[in-house]
Amino acid sequence: MSGQLTKKLSGWGRYPVAVCHTLRPERYAELGSNSESSIARGQGRAYGDAALNTERQVVLTERLGRLRSFDAQSGVLRAEAGLTMQQLIDFSLPQGWFPSVTPGTQFVSLGGCVAADVHGKNHHHDGAFSTSVMGFELIDADGGRRWCSREENFDAFAATVGGMGLTGIIGEVELQMRRVESAYIQATHHAADNLHAAFELFEQHYDATYSVAWIDLQARGAAQGRSVVMLGEHAPLERLSAAQQQSPFAIKARANRRVPFEMPGWLLNPLTIGAFNQLYYRIEGRRRTPFIIDYRKFFYPLDALSDWNRLYGRRGFLQYQCVVPRDGAQQALSELLTTLAESRHPAFLGVLKKMGKTGEGLLSFPLEGYTLALDLPFSGDALLQLLQRFDAIVSNAGGRVYLAKDARLDSEMFRAMYPGVEPFIQSKGVLDPDGRFSSDLSRRLELG
Fold it and tell me: Please, which pLDDT band fits residue 2 given cuts at 50, 70 and 90?
C-alpha cells in the first residue's frame, strides 16, 4: 500500500476543494482495517463533496480494478469495484455484452456506480444501476467482509446502494450485462418547440429503450424548454452498413481532445451560449431520419473532450440535478426554468430525462417522473441562494436533489426530500457503529 499523501481534492465540478489525506491500496487484500475517518474514492466523478473528507482520510481505489470472472454465455461479470465503465466495455463489448445501465460518462468506477446508484437514458424501462447488480462485497472498518444481495444481507444492500460510500468500502461487484449485436446505436432526433412538446415526445415514444433531451436554457416565453429529444436502440446487424457488418464491434478510435487550461470566466456568457444553442437546435433538431452512431457518441458525448470541466474556469461549477414526480413535473420544471431565466445566471447545459420506478436503495435518487440537470458556473452566494429557491420548488413538488451532483444542500431540506433517511441512519449504525466512514457530504447532511 502506498503511503499517505496530503493533497487537495475536488469533485468533477471543481467546487468545493478540500485538503485530504489520501491512501492508495495497490492490492485488493489491502482494503480493510482502518481506525480513521475515511471515505472511498474511485474516479472522482461525483460533482460535489461526496468523495471529499477534509483533513481526514480518502481511500483511492483506482488501482483496484481487476476482472475476477465473466460468463460469456450468461453475461454475468464480477470485478473489483475500481474497474471503470470504459474498462468494462472494452472487455465485454467485443464478446457481445454491454452494461445494462450506464451513466453519462464511462470514466466512473463500478463502486461509484453502486454508491450513487447511477441511472442512464433507459431508466424509464430498466431502472437504476442497482437493478443490474447481483451483489457486492462490503468491507467494514475492521476489515470484515460480507456479501450483500437481494437474497443475502439485503438491509446492507439497500443502505449501500445510493448510500454514497457511508456504509463501508464496496470491494467487488457482480453484474448482469445486456446482450447486443453491435457497438452501434440506431438514433432518432425530434425537435420540440417548448417544454410541453418535449414532455409529449417522451410520452409518445415511451417504448424507446433510450431517451434523453437536450434543452436550450436560453429560450424564453413560448419557446421555454425548447429541446431536441434523442431516442436510441442498440442497432441489430441488419441495420448496419456492409462494412460495419464485417466488424460490428469495431469502431474508430476517438481523438483525444483536451482542454489544456482553465478557460477565462467570461468565455461562457449569454452571447456565446445562445449562439451555440441556436446552432445545436438547428443541426440536431432536423436529424429526424433514423441514423447509426457508435455507442460512445450516443452515451458519452462529453467524454470526447477530456477535462471539459475546465471550461468553467478556476471557480468551477455546480450541477443541479433534481427529479420530480410525473404528476406536476411539467409545472415544476417550468417554474425552475423561469426562476433561472429571471436570475440571469448563465447556464450552459440542460438535460431532461424520463424516470421509472423508485430505486431499491434507501437513499437512491430516482423516482417515477422527470429529472432535469443544469450546469451552472459557480458565482458565490448569488448562485447558492438561487439553488435554495430551486430546492423549495423541487421539494414542494415532492421531488429531490441528486446527492452525487450536490455540494450545498442543507440537512433540513435533505430530510424533507428523502424519506429513507432515518432507516438509512439505523442501518449505518449497524454496519458502521463507530462512524468511521464519513465525508464532507455526510457531515453537511448530518448523516452520523
Answer: low
**pLDDT per position as a tens digit, 298-330:** 999 999 998 999 988 889 999 999 999 999 999
CB atoms within 10 A of CB 444: 17
C-alpha cell at 402: 441528486
Query: What is the rounded distance in angstroms from the CA atom of residue 207 to the CA atom of residue 232?
Result: 10
CATH number of the domain residue 72 falls in: 3.30.465.10
Q: Do residues 409 and 47 lie in contact, with contact meaning Cβ atoms separated by under 8 Å?
A: no
**For the segment 388-419, what is each residue's pLDDT rounded down to a tens digit?**
999 999 999 999 999 999 999 999 999 999 99
Q: How far apart are CA 82 and CA 108, in angstroms?
A: 9
Strands (E), 126-217: 133-139, 145-148, 169-179, 184-192, 210-215
CATH assignment at residue 371? 3.30.70.2520
Q: How far is CA 17 from CA 8, 31, 323, in A?
A: 6, 26, 27
**Considering its fold, how many domains does the chain have in total?**
2
| Rounded CA separation 169/27 (Å) | 14
Instruction: Give first-to-last CA distance, the chain, whole Å.
Output: 28
**pTM, full prediction:** 0.95
User: Do residues 140 and 148 touch, judged by C-beta distance below 8 A?
Assistant: no
Q: What angle do CA 39, 40, 41 make, to 5 degrees?
A: 120
